[in-house]
Amino acid sequence: SAVISQKPSRDICQRGTSLTIQCQVDSQVTMMFWYRQQPGQSLTLIATANQGSEATYESGFVIDKFPISRPNLTFSTLTVSNMSPEDSSIYLCSVEGGPTDTQYFGPGTRLTVL
Amino acid sequence: AQSVTQLGSHVSVSEGALVLLRCNYSSSVPPYLFWYVQYPNQGLQLLLKYTTGATLVKGINGFEAEFKKSETSFHLTKPSAHMSDAAEYFCAVSDGYSTLTFGKGTMLLVSP
Looking at the predicted structure, is the pLDDT value of residue B98 above 80? Predict the structure, then answer.
């Protein structure tokens, strides 16, 4: 399985600011995913990021709010823009490991917006 | 469309007792099924998965799950709970198009 790291591990931000979260994988992967886990909730997919193409966003998530970059096969960033307290969540990146849709997750970024 | 239902947001067991976490799914195609565990302040770790073949799947830390197509279930079990098993457990389903749908999670509480 892939080893995935995320930066920062946690942050406290002010309303109206933006935060960029980095996801680094120790091997080349085609598909990377970004999830949000709101307090006490399950995971919700924000978008799928393939290298060399635009990210594909799920219903309820838009590029202006959550711009994603995927510059190469081992790295991706998610920006949470113009933050409000409702954006306080854990943000997780994951990568697909093989043809059976298995995903491996990073440790998550815990975001608190004041 | 696919969906996952986990019965019980919290399950409490005594150390040494049987662990049973329930998961039912719906999928229009033969599914891939997964159990993940999330320890406090950590990301998700893959416990086990069912893709094809043997319906009884063994995972890490002594957990196993059985795929029952007739019951559309994929319940997670462990014969003897340990204090270190206390965590949140998520069942997930995929229809083969790389999108995972997660259940709401079950918090396992283990008492001494």
Answer: no
